[in-house]
Amino acid sequence: MINGANMRIATLLGISSAVHAGAFAAYGYLYPPELVQLSAGTALTVQLHQPLPIDLTGLSVEPVAIESEPTELVSMDNVSIDPESISGRQPEGLPARPKQAALVPEEELPAVRVVTTRSEQAEVRKNLTTIVVVKADAPLASEPEAFQSRPPTNSLPGLRAVVPVVVLPVTAEGSLNSSPAATALLEVQQLTVSTFQPSQLGAALDAVPVLASLTTELPVIGSERLPSVPAGSSNPDPLAQSSPDQSLSYQNSSGHGLSGDHPSQNPTASASLEQQAGQQLLRALNRYFRYPLKARRKGWQGEVVLRVQLSERGVVREVLLSQSSGYKALDRAALKSMNQVQAIQQLALNGELSVEVPVSYRLLN
Amino acid sequence: MFSSKPFLSASLPLAVLLFPLSAPVVAESETPVSKATTANQADQVVVTATRMAQTTDQTLVPVSVITREQIEQSPATSLPELLRQVPGVDMSISGGNGKSSSLYMRGTGSGHTLVLIDGVKIGSSTLGSTPFQDLPLDQIERIEVVRGPRSSLYGSEAIGGVIQIFTRKPKQGLSGYAKAGTGTHNTKEASGGISAGSDLGGVAINLSHLKTDGIDAKDGGSDDDDGYENNSASINMNVNLGDSSSAVFTALHSDSRNEYDRSAGDFNDYADNMQQTLGLRLNSDLSEDWTLSAGVNQHRDESEAFDNYPGQFMTKRQGADVKSDHYLAETQILTIGLDYQRDMVGGSSAYLSDERENVGGFGQWQAEYGDFSVLAGLRHDDSDAVGSHNTGNINLGYQLDSRRRVLASYGTAFKAPTFNDLYWPAGPGSAGNPDLESESSESFELGYEVNTKSYHYAARAFVTKIDDLIDWACTSNCDDGDWMTDFWQPSNVNRAKIKGLELESGYVRGPWSATANASLLDPRDQDSDKYLVNRARRTLQLDLTRSFETVVLSANLLAQGERFTNESNTTSLPGYGVVNLKASYDFAPNWAVEAKVNNLFDKEYATQETSFSLDRVYLVSVRYNR
């Protein structure tokens, strides 16, 4: 009997090991580790604790289009619109939306590790997938000691993916900071994460030392890989050297890819990246849409097409019903949900944009 | 007798060891990134939700839905075999096809689950049992299994849960199928159906036949094979009456002959059974925000035994109801309703009373406020036999993010005594007890769910307390020292407390789909602290399906721990594990062949004392669809 019990336990352990090994193997297969793409426009705050070893003298870069008003830097979670502030049509029978909420990001701050040694910089460059542009909204500090005693700030909870980044200092006006003061300590309050690739900056990037790399996890929207960057593309490149401005203007296209009649402003942007940006946007929108209880109860399904008028800053100006689903409940729900989106912060457009957003309501099972 | 092979004969350790698997998935789910939704959704916002189950909304109440597609992919050859793969369900089957089966939902008793066919309550009013074994899978379109109390919506019996079975519905256009199969134990089956539907309405008619020599169902009694034959037919018809109204008629009739061993000695005991459910319902959208529904129905359950104790038992139940849905807002529904039920029993036993009536009124309110949702219900039942009952429930849900949800609920429920309990004709030493109270229960539950397109899992913990459980007890002349004069009657003597933990998970990836469920129960008699009889305390259910272009393969495993067979917990049936396989192959346009292997490893086991369970059986069938 004891032998029988031991046999049973051994069998179970064997089965368990096999099941676990199989399941973990399957898990690894199903969810391979992957690079993540930072969403453009994510608002973060970083503090650098050492003087920036940077000298941008002589480097000329076109101003980067960075949203300067805090409202647009807030993630969409916190945004709501004052109905009177836009010309958007209020669907009949809907309650007025609440007044604008406080637009202060509440997240904890990610720590930044300043990379100083040459070998570390080389390591970060090698793995570089994303470039972070820092907007200096505080004057560049002249007293480095005042900051050195500060403890590092904390990480964002519940997020993942450590991403090698390069931090570029940018003035409040939006241009790359090339003043001599940049060599002093820089305290920045807002970090705009942009989906630049190293090749987009080319030699301009190469001229800028790797200032810092984020050592903690960043919020992630979207999980697709960026188009792979050839190794060494951040090394000096005679072609890229001549066109840093063109590279930087890429940000203007980061919101493309929406199905819509957007005039393409940037022929150099890759189509797949546009599409990715569009997908990201649609996924971001997805969170605002819910299946109305009544439609679920009645088994209603359908596709609503909304026409959304966006300002050049991505602010939702007007939402119209372009095509009905055949069910008022679904049409109303789609309009209401879209109206809850104040601004699509990834977008930095070269003008007003009218896009069609199809919203498909599907019941499973 | 029951050789304890090491193979999966104790399921708990496996279930427990499997559980940590979900940990990495939990971590994964905390980012708002859904890998499954990133692909192929380039240009639209896709808003999905689960279709609301008709029995109750599954966003707040645990409901397992089995679709026709899943029935066809399942290796199960009968309804009891299909249901025993559902989380929270424990089936006790006394033999092969057609042998009586009892369902224990979440450790509650076999009469504590309300079973409906197309909204009509089924089962015997005398015995209080439900003949799952006599309902052919070929007649079933969809099954909804609700766990937890729902008396506040449906009245008596919904203590452990509710199972609703829907008959085959008409589809748009003209279609039909025919199927014939054969297998071990001289099993022959044939079924066929036609369906026609248009904008005006539709009709579906399905027929099925099963005959098998079976196995010797009982350890003891006659050693012959105990066969089974079933013939059934269903009609499901709907007519659209203008734009906003429709009428639905449903009918299911099942005739069966079941052989068993009851008499000691070499007799060919058998019983003829008949179930028939009829329902007619009118639905009307009186306005955009008001839907009215009214129905009448009838159910008959008849059984005639031909053995050493011949007898005939008949139940006829008539019902009518009216239900009104009010959409107070797009995210609020108020339902109020009234129903009436009359049970009539007849047959060879002279019950002291052969009829009773129940009137129930109920209200249910469901609302969503952003991430918070609530479902609350109250019901009052008034029966001329067992008095009145008030039951209620409240279910709360909070959406943590797009995929994670926490749930909490509280509910009360009751079960009215059966005609046998109340009115069994007096004999020497025993009689029914017309003074019986209903059994009443109280349940609490906490749940955590994660739902995405590609996977879902849930953990639920619950406690159910049941008072006034009915059992036979000596009620007079008990202390005179002479047991011959003792007089026994069904009495409200027992209390039970059931604690349970359920873990569910499901994964879909490309052509693969898998589910894994584990259930741990602590079902105890509250006075003796012994385990309740015939409940498996550990259950593990695994299903795996792989679809190819023309081939579908599926396998399932059921592993259960031991179950005690007496109240003092001194005798028990050992745990077991069975594996079933199914393969289907579309070998030509409109044609398919399918093969099932049941109990692949030929495990000798039992879920009912002194019964045998099916050995390894093969079943091959050919199917024509168009």
Descriptive overview:
The complex is a heterodimer of chains A (365) and B (626). Chain A has 365 residues and is α+β, with helices and mostly antiparallel strands. Chain A is 27% helix and 15% strand. Chain A has ten helices and nine strands. A four-stranded mixed beta sheet of chain A has the order 1-5-3-4, with no helix packed on it. Chain A has a three-stranded antiparallel beta sheet with strand order 8-7-9, covered by helices on one side. A two-stranded antiparallel sheet of chain A has the order 2-6. The longest helix of chain A is centred in the first third of the chain and has 29 residues, at 2-30. Chain A is globular, with a radius of gyration of 24 Å. Chain B is mainly beta. Chain B contains seven helices and 32 strands. Chain B has helices at residues 12-18, 22-29, 35-38, 68-73, 79-83, 151-154, 419-423, and strands spanning 45-50, 63-67, 89-93, 101-105, 113-117, 120-121, 140-147, 161-167, 173-183, 187-198, 201-215, 226-241, 245-260, 269-287, 290-306, 311-329, 332-347, 355-369, 372-383, 387-399, 404-415, 439-451, 455-476, 487-509, 512-525, 538-547, 551-560, 563-564, 572-573, 576-588, 591-598, 617-625. In chain B, the strands form four sheets. Chain B has a 22-stranded antiparallel barrel. A five-stranded mixed beta sheet of chain B has the order 2-7-8-5-6. Chain B has a two-stranded antiparallel sheet with strand order 3-4. The model of chain B is unreliable at 1-42 (pLDDT under 50). At the A-B interface, helix 1, helix 8, helix 9, helix 10 and strand 9 of A face helix 1, helix 2, helix 3, strand 1 and strand 18 of B.
